[in-house]
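Hello again, I could really use a second opinion on something today. I've been staring at a protein lately and its backbone has me curious. You're getting the sequence in one-letter code plus the fold written as tokens. I'd be grateful if you could look everything over and explain what you see. No rush at all, and the record is pasted right below:
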Amino acid sequence: MISYDFSNLKVLIVEKQEPMRSLLRRVLDEFGVGEVIDASSPEEGFNKFTKTRPDLVLIDWAPDFNGLDLVRKIRNDKTSIFPLVPIVMVTAYEETSHIHEALDSGMTEYLSKPLSANLLYQRISTVIENKHPFIRSKKFTGPDRRRKKENFNGQNRRITTEPTEMGYPA
């Protein structure tokens, strides 16, 4: 596994449970992450997101904690300052239907609880190494959900947009 320097990385954790926020903060500190910000609700998370412009967001999804709405707000809200930010959904939901629902909301990677430091590092590494084109359409905004590399030139071909310096498509 490649070793990365995370000293310039700013990560926002949006997690309902304080023990899990604390655990994620400690693990990210051990990885050498430069700045870790956390929030205990989706509303607080979006507020901190717009004020701090993190490089990566870790979002909980649990009963009474709709992380999917936060993902959609980051991707689509007019006040979102960086809709292309990589988002890792950190959740106890492991069913395939939940993974597809999270993909459809615009998340970048998925991490099931209980988690380990190794798995979290792998997801962050995946975000760095496997940059997916960003898609904007009437029904979806987020990284390309397709994981297979294949060319499609048919009638419903998706058009990708490359990120600009400010994070918005040109």
